[in-house]
Inverse folding.
């Protein structure tokens, strides 16, 4: 009877071990897939991972910010420090950024901050277009920026370039489709008020709005446009004008 009880106890333990073995075998069968998923997630994180800004003080943080606003991201910027704190190995800096530039450059600059490696965090952004015909495509912008910077060389890698491509520049919604035109400050020939005097293989002479004879070649500038074509067989010249976003073609015929 003692042996029967021992056998029953051992049978129960064997049954439990078989259940555990079955569970472990299920995990083992999915191990390779789990490793592949882990590596893919890790690679995605590495591509988007941020690093503390390599800087020992606020001036070096500003320098890092300026370096991101070069070339096709250039704008005129101002910085105003709001708050800062220093810890053993890193520091925190909050400041206001405001500036002016072409919308495309502002867009690139912001994308570099958002997708770049240095740890900058943008808050409360504001963008508005500049008024006036001379400021087409230009905007004012402002935002609050927070930065965590490395004061003690915690990391080895301080690359400032994003590990993935930046978003493609989008259309400037602040640029008016129809806008005012510039005044004729250069006193260029006004085609709409001029007459064709003579015509050659690739040049013409034009009596402008002031009664002055102007000699022009294909590609030469007129008020709001250029001379784009000369047709000696038809004795005519064609101009392309941009009247505040409206493209207009005017043909003058020699009579």
């Amino acid at each position: 009877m003692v042996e029967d009880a021992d056998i029953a106890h051992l049978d129960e333990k064997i049954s439990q071990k078989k259940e555990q073995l079955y569970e472990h075998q299920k995990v083992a069968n999915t191990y390779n897939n789990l490793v592949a998923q882990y590596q893919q997630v890790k690679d995605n994180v590495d591509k988007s991972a941020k690093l503390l800004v390599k800087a020992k003080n606020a001036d070096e943080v500003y320098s890092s910010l300026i370096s991101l606003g070069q070339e096709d991201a250039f704008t005129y910027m101002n910085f105003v420090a709001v708050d800062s704190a220093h810890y053993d190995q890193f520091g925190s800096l909050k400041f206001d950024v405001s500036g002016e530039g072409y919308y495309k450059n502002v867009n690139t600059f912001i994308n570099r901050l958002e997708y770049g490696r240095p740890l900058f965090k943008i808050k409360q952004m504001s963008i508005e277009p500049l008024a006036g015909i001379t400021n087409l495509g230009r905007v004012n912008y402002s935002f609050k920026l927070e930065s965590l910077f490395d004061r003690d060389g915690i990391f080895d890698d301080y690359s400032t370039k994003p590990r993935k491509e930046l978003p493609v520049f989008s259309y400037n919604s602040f640029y008016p489709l129809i806008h005012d035109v510039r005044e004729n400050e250069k006193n260029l020939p006004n085609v709409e008020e001029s007459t064709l005097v003579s015509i050659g293989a690739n040049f013409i002479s034009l009596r402008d709005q002031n009664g002055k004879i102007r000699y022009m070649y294909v590609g030469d500038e007129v008020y709001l446009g250029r001379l784009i074509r000369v047709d000696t067989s038809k004795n005519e010249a064609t101009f392309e004008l941009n009247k505040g976003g409206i493209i207009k073609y005017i043909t003058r015929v020699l009579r």
In short: The chain is about 25% helix and 35% strand.
